[in-house]
Specification:
Blueprint lengths: L3 H19 L21 H7 L16 E4 L2 E4 L21 E2 L2 E2 L4 E4 L2 E4 L3 E2 L5 E2 L6 H7 L12 E4 L2 E4 L8 E2 L5 E2 L16 E4 L2 E4 L3 E2 L5 E2 L4 H8 L11 E4 L2 E4 L11 E2 L5 E2 L19 E4 L2 E4 L3 E2 L5 E2 L6 H9 L10 E4 L2 E4 L7 E2 L5 E2 L15 E4 L2 E4 L3 E2 L5 E2 L6 H8 L11 E4 L2 E4 L6 E2 L5 E2 L5 E2 L2 E2 L4 E4 L2 E4 L3 E2 L5 E2 L6
Antiparallel strand pairs: 1-2, 3-4, 5-6, 7-8, 9-10, 11-12, 13-14, 15-16, 17-18, 19-20, 21-22, 23-24, 25-26, 27-28, 29-30, 31-32, 33-34, 35-36, 37-38, 39-40, 41-42
Protein name: Integrin beta-like protein 1
Keywords: Disulfide bond, EGF-like domain, Glycoprotein, Repeat, Secreted, Signal
GO cellular component, one term: integrin complex
């Protein structure tokens, strides 16, 4: 048995512990769960009630929308640069009011989402001086917006600063001149800002990926990842930074971010016709100096003219027909469709790329590369666009070993297409790989299930000769874009 004095100490400690626990808010009571993983002893309604701010109706935001409710206790989200805190995740310095770009207008400190103003200042953002030395005329002048309207007719002027009308206390009217009204973002049906699928900035909704509409009320029928992929331009920018992506389609701006007017177009807004305007007046309608055609911001000059804007006459002793004939060679197209013909001589696309060469640009060693850029599968050399395979290898890209270490049954099992037909009935199987019929040159794909004739053409060439057809879609080489790889995005010709 314990000594009496020691028992008294234990009783005193127990009573103090009990008193301490009774002071803990109910939402933090350790008795709501017993043991790890145990069921919550509260009903769902009671649990959510404890996680909701006082005065909020049922269905309102839990934990101020900054955390999750776990059996009546708020588990706050981590955010940048720190964490939300407080029993209901109500505290974070970044939720304090700002004015003219400064938290608490630079005249106070942020404490749990509220500004504590310095002496001489007041207001939700500490933006109002308590004593004003300005005349009413001077004060009103400082409160006028760019249209000379005092506080945008959405507030009152106090000592040169606008106090926005927010009688309902929701703070949806704001801005230095009360120019922003986020009530414009409220969806009429759901009564949520941007339908709950976006953020509102100055009365305009910026939708989450996968949603669109003035109030983000429409859902896309493709995944956000696929939407982003379709809108990504060759230089890796979304809509070339000249438009917005809506469900995988770019909506190009008529005016660029500098405020300059332009004719911007293209699948990813990559084309800007302003680059074709005449040298002497970039705002005129005289494209390519009147001596060429504008193709995605690049001038294709008429015979007899050259220069970035077709501004220079070219003296050539040959007629246009003679010049083109010299550039044709064995192909029906000048420079094999891979270059520019000037006075009977070809300049191959792209300038300076030695993979395309020949008197009429007839050799294209890019055709020897696979999608990873490996030449002839690493098992051969490229000669004028054709692979010469090493011993023991064969195929268009030297991708097939002649020696096979698997049985015929194993090989065939790897060559069956989705419908169970060997190489889709359009090729033969070798060592688990399909070799498509050479007679049907347009058949391709892992299981010979693709028809290259489905790819877009330009000048009679599949993918314009500037890319490869991958199961109905053109995969353009660097510097080219467009459904048929017909648009050159690189530098001009020398």
């Amino acid at each position: 048995m314990l000594p009496a004095g020691f028992r008294n100490v234990l009783l005193l400690a127990s009573s103090l512990l009990f008193a301490g626990l009774s002071a803990v808010p109910q939402s933090f009571s350790p008795s709501l769960r017993i043991g790890p993983g145990a069921a919550c002893r509260l009903s769902r309604a009671e649990s959510e009630r404890r996680c909701r701010a006082p005065g909020q109706p049922p269905g309102g935001a839990l934990c101020h929308g900054r955390g999750r409710c776990d059996c009546g206790v708020c588990i706050c989200h981590v955010s940048e640069p720190g964490v939300y805190f407080g029993p209901l995740c109500e505290c974070h310095e970044w939720v304090c009011e700002t004015y003219d770009g400064s938290t608490c207008a630079g005249h106070g400190k942020c404490n749990c989402g509220k500004c504590e103003c310095d002496e001489g200042w007041s207001g939700d953002a500490c933006q109002y001086p308590t004593h004003c030395d300005l005349t009413k005329k001077k004060s009103n002048q400082m409160c006028k917006n760019s249209q000379d309207v005092i506080c945008s007719n959405a507030g009152t002027c106090h000592c040169g600063r606008c106090k926005c009308d927010n009688s309902d206390g929701n703070g949806l009217v704001y801005g230095k001149f009360c120019e922003c009204d986020d009530r414009e973002c409220i969806d009429d049906e759901t009564e949520e800002i941007c339908g709950g699928h976006g953020k509102c900035y100055c009365g305009n909704c910026y939708c989450e990926a996968g949603w669109h509409g003035d109030k983000c009320e429409f859902q896309c029928d493709i995944t956000p990842w696929e939407s982003k992929r379709r809108c990504t331009s060759p230089d890796g920018k979304i809509c070339s930074n000249r438009g917005i992506c809506v469900c995988g389609e770019c909506s190009c701006h008529d005016v660029d971010p500098t405020g300059d007017w332009g004719d911007i177009h293209g699948d990813t807004c990559e084309c800007d016709e302003r680059d074709c305007r005449a040298v002497y007046d970039r705002y005129s309608d005289d494209f390519c100096s009147g001596h060429g055609q504008c193709n995605c911001g690049r001038c294709d000059c008429k015979v007899g003219w050259y220069g970035k804007k077709c501004e220079h006459p070219n003296s050539c002793p040959l007629s246009a027909e003679e010049s083109i004939k010299k550039c044709q060679g064995s192909s029906d197209l000048p420079c094999s469709g891979r270059g520019k013909c000037e006075c009977g001589k070809c300049t191959c696309y792209p300038p300076g790329d030695r993979r395309v060469y020949g008197r009429t640009c007839e050799c294209d060693n890019r055709r020897c590369e696979d999608l990873d850029g490996v030449i002839c599968g690493g098992h051969g050399t490229c000669s004028c666009g054709r692979c010469v395979c090493e011993k023991g290898w064969f195929g268009k890209l030297c991708q097939h070993p002649r020696k096979c270490n698997m049985t015929e049954e194993q090989s065939k099992s790897l060559c069956e297409s989705a419908d169970g037909i060997l190489c889709s009935g359009k090729g033969s199987c070798h060592c688990g790989k399909c070799i498509c019929s050479a007679e049907e040159w347009y058949i391709s794909g892992e299981f010979c299930d693709c028809d290259d004739r489905d790819c877009d053409k330009h000048d009679g060439l599949i993918c314009t000769g500037n890319g490869i057809c991958s199961c109905g879609n053109c995969e353009c080489w660097d510097g080219w874009n467009g459904n048929a790889c017909e648009i050159w995005l690189g530098t001009e010709y020398p």
